[in-house]
Amino acid sequence: MILTVGFDEAGRGPLAGPVAAAAVILPPDFPIEILNDSKKLSEKKRLYAETIIKEKACWGISLVDHETIDKINILQASMLAMKNAFIQLQEKLPAWASALAINDFILSGITDGTRCPDVNIECRCEPKADGKYPQVMAASILAKTARDRLMLEMDKKYPEYGYAKHKGYPTPEHKKICRRLGPSPIQRLSFKY
Question: 46-81 as b/e, with b when 16 or more CB fall inside 10 Å?
Answer without folding.
Answer: beebbeebeebbbbbbbbbbbebbeeeebeebbbbb
